[in-house]
Design a protein that fits this description.
about 375 residues; TIM Barrel; eight-stranded parallel beta sheet; two-stranded antiparallel sheet; globular; binds ligand FNR; isomerase; magnesium ion binding; flavoprotein
């Protein structure tokens, strides 16, 4: 059952990516172009720091799979691509392994293929502390992701219907894990209130994983005989909306959900994300063109992100948070209703900072 579900998720996520990967709310964010704000490419670094972690690049392969023979082979290829490019990588949910240790190899391959890489284990919010440790130990994980996914569980025929224990359990795991705990959504987004609560629970970072890419309400509805939860398709907040909502919430935020290309990465970093993850897009590249295609895509993304930073005068990903941003369309309405000041975003570089860039002085 569980192995079949994992294979279904891969197939349905790819079909969805083929059908629905067009416009999303990242298109409602644009940079104000300052034509003399450029710096030199050798000045640019892609390094990012958060939660006591230091990553050389701000792009990661986000949680996907494991638990069946097919998905074990996918994990092997994802891990190889992570090793070849140096990007951090997350496992898919390891609850399959916790229930049935015979599928350990389909997850463990993430570490075996990538012994020196940054690897994140992944569990759900009902996992016991002991099992959280087992998941971390299997991967010798550098961090632990806990996914929260009420809009996936609800239409899932065999899904969880009891959510009250999730917060207290996250708190227990965060206190005992021994590695930084990152709580993530799976494509429906984290609100400001949720991020503030996660901070109180002792979580070290939150991955907003918002609407705009993979839609698990749609995937689970597609697995229902009557597909009678179609009204949940597109539930939640977009990734840029979540980033705007969580500004200054006091917890480092990561971005995933509908990240399509390096400009989306730059937009997410400019909206405050410390790093940016992609899942279905990378998976599709892998399944279409194998490991060489995924390696080439990740190298291109890193190269083009550095090029964008150069053009935008951002020596580091964090410097992008000083670039002026314009917010349009539906995202602008979201900001108005949530009390988010878009004028401040559009003017935040300040004339002094831009003048410094123009005259070549360092920030
Ligand atoms: C996922 N995602 C996911 N997340 C998680 O925390 N545990 C999991 O087991 C899975 N499984 C999974 C399978 C597949 C096939 C996909 C495509 C995705 C969710 C993923 O990490 C991410 O949050 C969303 O997919 C949004 O990002 P994209 O796909 O829009 O880049």
């Amino acid at each position: 059952m569980s192995a079949q579900r994992k294979d279904d998720h891969v197939r349905l996520a790819i079909e969805q990516h083929q059908a629905h990967s067009g416009r999303n709310q990242f298109d409602d964010v644009s940079f104000v172009h300052h034509a003399l704000a450029g710096i030199d490419r050798p000045d640019v670094s892609l390094g990012t720091d958060f939660a006591g972690l230091s990553w050389q690049v701000p792009i990661y392969i986000n949680a996907m799979t494991g638990g069946s023979a097919k998905t074990g082979a996918i994990n092997r290829d994802l891990a190889t691509a992570a090793r070849e490019t140096g990007v951090p990588i997350a496992s898919g949910s390891m609850n399959a392994y916790l229930k049935d240790p015979s599928c350990a190899g389909t997850f463990r391959v993430l570490r075996e293929e990538n012994p020196d890489g940054f690897v994140m284990a992944n569990i759900n919010a009902t996992t016991s502390v002991d099992n959280a440790r087992r998941a971390i130990d299997l991967l010798e994980a550098d961090a632990l992701q806990i996914h929260i996914n009420t809009a996936q569980e609800t239409p899932m025929p065999e899904g969880d219907r009891s959510f009250s224990s999730w917060g207290p359990q996250i708190e227990k795991i965060a206190a005992a894990a021994g590695v930084p705990v990152i709580v993530k959504e799976v494509g429906n987004g984290l609100s400001r209130q949720t991020v503030l609560t996660l901070r109180e629970l002792g979580v070290r970072a939150a991955d907003v994983s918002g609407r705009g890419g993979t839609d698990f309400a749609r995937i689970e509805n597609g697995r229902r005989e009557l597909a009678d939860y179609a009204f949940l398709h597109g539930w939640g907040q977009s990734t840029p909306a979540c980033l705007l909502d969580a500004q200054d919430a006091g917890l480092p935020v990561l971005a995933s959900g509908g990240v399509r290309h390096p400009l989306d990465v730059a937009r997410a970093l400019a909206l405050g994300a410390r790093a940016v993850g992609a899942s279905a897009g990378f998976l599709r590249t892998l399944l279409d063109g194998g490991v060489p295609a995924l390696v080439a895509q990740i190298i291109t993304w890193l190269d083009q992100l550095a090029a964008l930073q150069t053009m935008l005068g951002a020596r580091t990903p964090a410097d992008l948070t000083r670039c002026d941003l314009l917010v349009h369309g539906e995202l602008r309405s979201f900001c108005a209703d949530r009390g988010i000041d878009t004028r401040r975003l559009a003017q935040r570089s300040g004339s002094a900072a831009v003048l410094h860039e123009m005259t070549g002085s360092t920030r």
